[in-house]
Amino acid sequence: MVSIEEAQRVILSNSPLLLSETVPLLQGLGRVIAEDVHAPWDIPTTDNSAMDGYAFSSTSSGREQWVIAGFIPAGSELVTSVATGEAVKIMTGAPIPSGCDTVVPFEEVELTAIGIRLVSKVKPGAHIRKQGEDVRANDLVVKAGSLLRPQEIGLLVSLGRTEVTVYQKVRVAILATGDELLGVGTTPSSGRIINSNSYSLAAQVLEAGGEPIMIGIAADSKESTMGKIVEGLAADILITTGGVSVGDCDFVKESIQKLGGTLLFWKVRMKPGKPVAFALLESKPIFALPGNPVATMVAFEMFVRPSLLKMMGHSRIFRPVVRATLGEEMRNNGDRPHLVRVGVTLQHGVYRATNTGNQSSANLASLTRSNGLLMLDSNTTIVSESTADITLLDRDFEMGSISNVVA
Ligand code: AMP
Ligand code: MG
Fold it and tell me: 382 is in which domain, residue-wise?
């Protein structure tokens, strides 16, 4: 039996970076860029107006009035230069014509019979966005390894890009095991249950940015399990669920070994999620997760998710951890750390966590009431109203409610 940290170390040192691929820009959203992007040109490409107003030369600012010598809407260019004593009407984003170095907004001028007069003092150089003030040609604007968010997509487009090279999405084969399992959409009869794990795991893979490939259900036999594992090797990694304990019908470990795979560990000191094995078969990582619905999802959180993120080029691979005040006493009399399902709220800037009920590894309903996991060490009690670290599974609860704005 290994500790959670040892298991993570073994897994992460066997989670190779995937290859990169070039995709249309929008498909890069949420993925990690695999190339350094240098700017091919300045942004802005020329000095331009930050306001709708009038452009003129500040060397003529001792003067009373300016004659309007032209109009420059955004997108057009005035070829002739502007003489001293003249101003041009200019729209936001339009290039500053030669002879001008200052823009005064409409609100700060008065129209006169011959042109305009300033109503207040204007600083030389005001309201001009200078060429290259955002980005200079050859600047490194997006570094390899960065996460692409909407703002990176926009900046890349402004630099002429239509495609981007990112790390591939990890393709994850998901194999359920067990003669008791029924397909999705069926009604369970006595003794049978619906294969929910394939779906919860597929959802976790999707949420991590990977591509799940559900390869169905292996029967409780070595032959069936081996055949399905081989099928799963077509993906980048394989996750199995169930059949990895010490029961008479647990064939996953044996099947991996029979196929020539190497088990790097089996069983992790944690609850739920102890019966986890990690193996390499034909150099593909295989995560053999427990069958119990919460155990499989918690094991995915602890072990598979960080591995997938690392393979897809992410450097931040662990969920955020916050310090929360506990709403009740939490006790662990067992000899394994307990990952307690908790509900976290934020009240006046303070995180509060409470137990979400039945902590059985089969009880998926209590996980739906949770958004965090509290790591409660073995033989430990944390008293009510003291604080503990909570791993947040989502941060939805921190978002503002619609009722803040409309009734
Ligand atoms: P096992 O480790 O295969 O004995 O499975 C442990 C428990 O998890 C049993 O009660 C199984 O019925 C349940 N289980 C196993 N696989 C799944 C699955 N794919 N979906 C839902 N429950 C499962
Ligand atoms: Mg089973």
Answer: 321-404
Cis ω for the linkage preceding 272 (within 30 of 0): yes
Q: Which ligand is nearest to the CA of 295?
A: 1
Same structural domain for residues 302 and 350? no
**Among 81-85, 140-144, 346-350, 394-398, where is mean pLDDT lowest?**
81-85
Alpha carbon dihedral 30, 31, 35, 40, in 10-degree steps, equals -30
What's residue 61's pLDDT?
66
Q: What is the pLDDT of residue 332?
A: 98
Beta carbon of 178 within 6 Å of any ligand 1 atom:
yes
The closest-lying atom of ligand 1 relative to the alpha carbon of residue 290 is 2
* Residue 64, pLDDT score: 80
Find the CATH number of the domain harbouring 223.
3.40.980.10
Q: Is the pLDDT of residue 78 over 70?
A: no
If you measure from the C-alpha of residue 218 to the centroid of ligand 2, how many angstroms do you get, rounded to a whole number?
Answer: 10
Determine whether the shortest distance from the Cβ of 363 to ligand 1 is under 6 A.
no
294 or 59, higher pLDDT: 294
**3-state SS assignment for residue 384:** coil
The answer to whether position 316 is within a domain reads no
Q: Which two tokens stand for residue 193?
A: 């249950």
Rounded to an integer, the average pLDDT of 266-281 is: 98
Question: Long-range contacts made by residues 72-76, C-beta under 8 angstroms, separation at least 24?
Answer: 72/97
Strand partners, 38: 140
